[in-house]
């Protein structure tokens, strides 16, 4: 029997750290509607029919091929899902668009092209364009007739986007902005018809512009030769007094940062989705190979070392999905809340994504690193064959590496996680002070060694609560000790962000499995319980290590000893046989011949 509460509480961004979440208010992949499951299947069918058979042709950058594939995706409605019906879109929710990003994410270079097109290539116009701009561009972009691209990065400004040098100056007749400068690493740049480009008006006002292919003074360089995602068009853009009509100004002069950074929040979550889709496919390839490759007169899937790898790959994908859809539904719920308050559609989704910018940054880091882990272990499972272009895992390995760099490097995102959290606390958006003081008080008291009634998932819930205390204790001590210098202590910031990522993921997978057990019964969820308990057991050690690294960087003497004792207390997990749990997880995938969770 489902014991869901009747009134749903939507947590604010970052609030999961100081408030307990209910599994019955948590959206999980098992909650997908029939329509969403059909869309998921449609994505799989599209990759199987249109993409996987021609991966070599795609990687060879066959002229016109990627553009035609985007057109085919447009014909099936895969470009239009989340766009308003008034422009020819399907008007679906954010969870549904996340599903498309995830299940097309296994498409190698194609997944990069379609994600760039539907995301950074189209959303700036949808959210910041004038009615005339939207009517002109959006219908053709979401049908696939036109392709979109996004020009932000420059040779000397990557992570420091606002340090861009491209300039824009109003022409003497007032009809054009003359753009001068250079953009690099532009996905879809070789064939796009429409580009969102950022330049500084009069040298200092960072502003967005819509630039059409064929604009006088606008040219592009040759295709970049890249380590991976070889089939993704990547070029440099050049502007020499490029004449951009004044009606193509996007948003307000000097407010380009609003476009760039708001779009990035959505992009980070969707990058996580695509990375997990790619990871799932690579797990399946590795399981299939391990079942057929024989050594010592038996399949290598029989060996414990291989089972450990396969299980850990599966665990990390399952955990990533748990955190991804928990957050995607928060964004949907927040968007609906803002719509009801009278906000416009575009304001509502951007506002909702900004509310969960912390979580989007965490997802970007985790999803990209899961994919890197999975493809690396996948090559290892394949052995020498993993180094051969004949096996798809080698392509997956090369294609994966970019994900930790674009949409903000993982280092930048780690720094942002704690920076945004602290700024919200100081601005009154997030109450960290009260909970942090409670943890400090608890630290000074004698530990409670029992007396509480042990209910279902008692130990797991207690561990999650304690991991949150470890974060509050460590971050609180760091802020008190380092004060204004904390921004320069990047290693400490990243340590604490890693504690937060592990804890958010651990709580997300616990909530998912609790809800599944409630719906299906414990007997039908044994493999999911193994996944959750293995991840939590390991997360406790990872949080402890990151916490110790941070504390040892800024504390000493009695203060250091007290905080380290607190870390040991708050990261203590009950003994658990991870080896047998991983074997059961691996055996389930081996029996089904694929990632099956």
Please state the overall shape, judged from the principal axes of the Cα atoms: globular
Euclidean distance between termini CA atoms: 23 Å
Total number of helices = 19
- The residue ranges in which pLDDT falls below 50 over 5 or more consecutive positions are 1-6
Which fold name fills CATH's third level, the topology of the largest domain? Butyryl-CoA Dehydrogenase, subunit A, domain 3
What report would you give on this structure?
There is one protein chain. The chain is of the alpha+beta class. Helix content is 56%, strand content 10%. It has four domains: 119 residues, Acyl-CoA dehydrogenase/oxidase, N-terminal domain (Butyryl-Coa Dehydrogenase, subunit A, domain 1), CATH 1.10.540.10; 105 residues, Beta Barrel (Butyryl-CoA Dehydrogenase, subunit A, domain 2), CATH 2.40.110.10; 155 residues, Butyryl-CoA Dehydrogenase, subunit A, domain 3 (Up-down Bundle); 150 residues, Butyryl-CoA Dehydrogenase, subunit A, domain 3 (Up-down Bundle), CATH 1.20.140. The chain is globular and about 80 Å long. The strands form two sheets. Strands 1, 2, 3, 4, 5, 6, 7 and 8 form an eight-stranded mixed beta sheet that branches. A two-stranded antiparallel ribbon has the order 9-10. α4 crosses α8 and α14 packs across α15. The two termini are 23 Å apart.
């Amino acid at each position: 029997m489902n014991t869901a509460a009747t009134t749903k509480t939507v947590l604010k961004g970052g609030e999961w750290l100081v408030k307990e979440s209910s599994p019955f208010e948590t959206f999980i992949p098992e909650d997908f509607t029939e329509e969403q499951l059909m869309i998921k299947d449609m994505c799989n069918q599209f990759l199987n029919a249109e993409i996987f058979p021609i991966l070599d042709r795609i990687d060879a950058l066959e002229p016109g091929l990627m553009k035609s594939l985007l057109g085919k995706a447009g014909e099936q409605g895969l470009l239009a899902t989340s766009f308003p019906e008034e422009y020819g879109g399907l008007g679906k929710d954010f969870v549904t668009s996340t599903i498309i990003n995830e299940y097309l994410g296994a498409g190698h270079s194609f997944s990069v092209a379609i994600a760039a097109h539907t995301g950074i290539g189209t959303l700036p116009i949808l959210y910041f364009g004038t009615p005339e701009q939207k009517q002109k561009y959006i219908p053709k972009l979401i049908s696939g007739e036109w392709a979109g691209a996004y020009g932000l990065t420059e040779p000397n400004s990557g992570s420091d986007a606002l340090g861009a040098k491209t300039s824009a100056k109003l022409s003497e007749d007032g009809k054009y902005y003359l753009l001068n400068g250079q953009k690099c690493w532009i996905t879809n740049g070789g064939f796009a018809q429409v580009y969102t480009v950022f330049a500084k008006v009069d040298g200092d006002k960072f502003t967005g512009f819509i630039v059409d292919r064929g604009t006088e003074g606008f040219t592009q360089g040759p295709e970049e030769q890249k380590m991976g995602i070889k089939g993704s068009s990547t070029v440099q853009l050049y502007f020499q007094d490029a004449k951009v009509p004044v009606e193509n100004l996007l948003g307000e002069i000097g407010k380009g940062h609003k476009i760039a950074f708001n779009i990035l929040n959505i992009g980070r979550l969707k990058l996580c989705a695509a990375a997990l889709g790619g990871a799932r496919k690579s797990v399946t390839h590795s399981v299939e190979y391990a079942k057929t490759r024989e050594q010592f007169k038996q399949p290598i899937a029989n060996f414990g070392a291989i089972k450990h790898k396969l299980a850990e790959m599966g665990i990390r994908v399952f955990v990533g999905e748990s955190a991804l859809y928990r957050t995607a539904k928060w964004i949907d719920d927040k968007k609906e809340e803002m719509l009801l308050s009278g906000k416009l559609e575009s304001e509502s989704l951007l506002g909702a994504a900004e509310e969960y910018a912390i979580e989007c940054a965490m997802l970007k880091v985790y999803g990209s690193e899961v994919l890197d882990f999975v493809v690396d272990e996948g090559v290892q499972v394949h052995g020498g064959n993993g180094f051969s272009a004949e096996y798809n895992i080698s392509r997956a390995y090369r294609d994966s590496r970019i994900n930790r760099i674009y949409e903000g490097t993982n280092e930048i995102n780690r720094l942002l996680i704690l920076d945004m959290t602290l700024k919200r606390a100081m601005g009154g958006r997030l109450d960290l002070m009260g909970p942090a003081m409670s943890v400090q008080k608890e630290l000074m008291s004698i530990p409670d060694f029992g007396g509480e009634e042990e209910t279902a998932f008692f130990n797991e819930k207690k561990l999650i609560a304690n991991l949150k205390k470890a974060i509050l204790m460590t971050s609180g001590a760091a802020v008190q000790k380092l004060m204004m210098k904390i921004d320069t202590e990047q290693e400490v910031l990243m340590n604490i962000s890693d504690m937060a990522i592990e804890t958010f993921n651990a709580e997300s997978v616990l909530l998912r499995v609790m809800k599944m057990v409630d719906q299906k019964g414990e007997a039908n969820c044994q493999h999911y319980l193994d996944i959750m308990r293995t991840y939590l057991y390991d997360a406790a050690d990872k949080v402890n290590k990151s916490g110790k690294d941070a504390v040892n960087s800024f504390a000493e003497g009695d203060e250091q000893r007290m905080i380290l004792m607190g870390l040991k207390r708050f990261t203590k997990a009950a003994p658990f046989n991870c080896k047998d749990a991983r074997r059961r997880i691996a055996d389930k995938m081996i029996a089904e011949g694929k990632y099956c969770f």
